[in-house]
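Researcher: We're teaching a course module on how sequence relates to structure. For the next exercise, students receive a sequence and then see the predicted structure as tokens, so they can try to spot secondary structure elements on their own. Here is the exercise chain.
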Amino acid sequence: MSLQKEVMDKMKEAMKAKDTVALQALRAVKSAFLLAKTETGAQVDLTADQEMKIIQKQVKQRKDSAAVFIQQGRQDLADPELAEIKVLEGFLPEALSEEKIEEVVKNTIQKIGASGMKDMGKVMGIVSKELSGQADGKTISSLVKKNLMA
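Model: And here is the predicted structure for the students to work with:
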């Protein structure tokens, strides 16, 4: 079942359960899907990879917002964002631990023979493709830097 269909089904469940937080998060995702469809033009359906990226983007936006709200001392605004993150993360694959990500980074560095920061782009490209949807770019970037400097 495609993510779009899954989101629609969860949206119906949230409406029946009168779960406003989940409903708000799911409506935002549905809106992002529709926006992406109209941007791509002739393409009828989004690929599973595109759908995953959209949900990851929605989660990242909410994490950033929650961080700003917490920094400003507005826990009342951060709580709904954090609740929406939990709803959206249900659609994402299980995130890898930092140790597993570092293992992939080290293997990639050895495989391509990267020797310094000049090879960071190459390593990032390969690792990002390999871990697509399972790790965020910020974590990958910091681990690649750490291992290339070592």
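Model: If you want an answer key for the exercise: The helical segments are 3-17, 20-40, 48-71, 75-89, 98-112, 120-130, 137-149. The chain has a mean pLDDT of 85.
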